[in-house]
Amino acid sequence: xxxxxxxxxxxISIGILIGxxxxxxxxLTSDIPERYIDxxxxxxxxxxxxxxxxxxxxxxxxxxxxxPGPLPKEYKNLITIVGDSYIENxxxxxxxxxxVLLKDxxxxxxxxEASRSGVSLIEAMEITRELDSLNPIQQLxxxxxxxxxxxxxxIKKHSDITQLDIKKEKVIKGLIKGSFLKKILYNFKxxxxxxxxxxxxxxxxxxxxxxKKDIPKNDIKLYHKLLDYIKRNYNTTxxxxxxxxxxxxxxxxxxxxxxxxxxxxxxxxxSSWSFDFDAHWTCYGHxxxxxxxxxxxxxxx
Length: 301
Fold this sequence. Notes:
Blueprint: H1 2-25, E1 35-37, E2 43-45, E3 50-52, E4 59-61, E5 78-83, H2 85-88, H3 98-105, E6 110-115, H4 121-131, E7 138-143, H5 145-149, E8 163-165, E9 170-172, H6 179-187, H7 189-209, H8 217-233, E10 239-243, H9 249-257, E11 262-264, H10 283-295
Parallel strand pairs: 5-6, 5-7, 7-10, 10-11
Antiparallel strand pairs: 1-2, 3-4, 8-9
Helix pairs in contact: 1-7, 3-10, 8-9
């Protein structure tokens, strides 16, 4: 019996080793950068990391400031770009980053990106406050409906996302969730590959089972309170909200009511903006986004 168990364990070990080699050689899973929390409670990536995206066709980089993508060569006439995974843009090469594309279209300006998966609207405002030290002439924040929703503690608590407690008018900083387990999975590529496959299957099943509901009226009231809090507690004079396509109109109505500067992106009749398997923008989508921003004349010197 002991010999049989040893043989089973031996073959399992060989299988795991082969799986690990295949996963690494064919880049079956993406490298994910490690995070830390800075002195202002903002989650950033540990500087000077790099890795490959799934398939190995391109790599990503974390620059010396802890944000993805290349840094500008100069900081005069600076415009910052703040956002979540859409702007983080690990799915595309550096040449498709918003800062690179906008610099090509508007060479008189320089662009600095600060982005990370899971950035909510309230954390984006915390980031703009930190970036004020760079003396930008404008700050762009790319937003969708989920960025508003995830910002509010009273709608749903997310311990790993920075949120606003509407009742207490207090910003609750997000924590790095499951960092030890994630570190093990990232280094054990085959296990991480299997974990992603199982997670994707479960997420897909849940997505099919949950019907789409109209936004509760109370949530809209909370969005209004969120925007009112931001107006009173942050410098929004240089901030322009870049609103993602298909964001509900009540969002822009609220922005208009409270005199926010914003630009609504339009992807109507153009499915090529996003990947077939994912809602994030392709290089073509990023190009279209940058072109609409460049054509809008929203920048003021």
